[in-house]
Specification:
It contains 13 helices and 2 strands. By secondary structure, it is mainly alpha-helical. The chain has one domain: ABC transporter involved in vitamin B12 uptake, BtuC. The radius of gyration is 21 Å and the shape is globular.
Length: 297
Amino acid sequence: MSDTFVILLVGCMVASSCALVGTFLVLRKMALLGDAISHSVLPGIAIGFLLSQSRSSLVMVVGAGALGVLTVFLVERLQRSGRLYADASIGVVFPALFAVGVILISRYASMIDLDLDCVLYGEIAYTPWDLVVVAGTTVGPRAVWVTGLTLLLNLVVIGLFFKELKLVSFDPGLCEALGFRPVRLHYLLMALVSVTVVAAFESVGAILVVAMLVVPPCVAYLLVDRLVLMLATAVASGCIAVFAGYGLARVLDGSIAGGMAVAAGGLFILAFLLSPRYGLIASWIRRRRAVGRYPAQ
């Protein structure tokens, strides 16, 4: 596999994984919670490294997933206390946990071979060179395996619980009345978000993860109304942003992850302007037609 192919493949798998879980976050008006999780899992990553002394250990994923669930739990407890709104609860919890992770990494980075810039910004250009060797045989870049398995996990879980996730996203009350457990489904989704974020951290960094969690689902939200189409459109938008961002980075000789995030933002601007139902241009045309049909007397 060529380096360009690996970079685009990893980018598309990360974008697809983030778009799948991000769609449900956007529908449930929890997009900022995805941002919070993507930062607050940092102490879980640091603790996993401290315990295992390995950058490929399952301990890292488990630790980060646990911190992601803890973030959700703390945010909800503060919100349910009635003393803070959801946005304020997020603003209190995730900076505190993120700061703990920064302190752990800055204090023990020399011992655990962990670079804070790698976690925050990532470097997808290096993914073709980080190879997995099994019994003396190279089986491919590690990022391809990690992000591929994460995408497969998201597809399987969403496929198995699609009806339940759809119901809890649009009508939690009806979901509970039908005998489902909205709380369990909620934490299942948050666990998926945590795993997705951790799997993409080293390859693309937190910034691109946040962009792919929020922007492609928002693009799909503006363009389509059915959930299945929204999931497909979000995945397609993320992959288009990957290709466009890679081309932009090559032209400008800049950060590939940054170029992909900028391209995703460009797609959102186009959808915001050109959406046939919710776009600014369509709204302006409808207003003009309404004025022409019912002129002021």
